[in-house]
What we know:
By secondary structure, this protein is of the alpha+beta class. Helices cover 28% and strands 28% of the residues. It is built from five helices and nine strands, in the order βαβαβββαβαβββα. The radius of gyration is 16 Å and the shape is globular. The two termini are 28 Å apart.
Amino acid sequence: MPEPGTTAVVIVLPDAAPLLDAAWRIDPALVRRGVPAHVSLFYPFVPQAALTAGDEESVRSLAAGFPRADLLLEEVVTASGFVAVTVPGLQPIVDAFHAHWPRLRPYGGRFGTRPGAHVTVAMGTDDPTATARVRTAVDSLLPLRTRAAAVQLVELTEEGWQSRLTTPLGIPHGPCAPPASGAQRRRAESG
Length: 191
């Protein structure tokens, strides 16, 4: 489990939320609640304590170099205790982020030097029956269309994952949403 101060760069795919909901209905422990459906461009990223303005500007610049993308999610993959849906249309941006920070190891090196772009649907089960049930439920929802529109730099805090920076894809020097204050986050969470 990551610790506070861990950061990641992601593309949130709200239209893929039904995939996570399907896994949650089978076993809520398999889904990280509070973490929306997303593709990780880099996880773990530069630790919060070492993150620089230059890193943030590089995230903005790389995002600006890729257009918004309409995506078709079609393929489920499984491994021991893991169910995901591949997102090959985002592989070029994943590769660009990894190339820009070559000293960082995506996923701590667990999936090699070039992990495939994917939405993690479920993880953490040793029960092959649960994995098979999640795969079947997710398969029934595919193909699924979604759109990649922005990149987020997120940070794990004591309250959970928080957006530190949001920048649109394909817009040079696009507007970046400032991080929400603690009071703003609490108001947004309370409705």
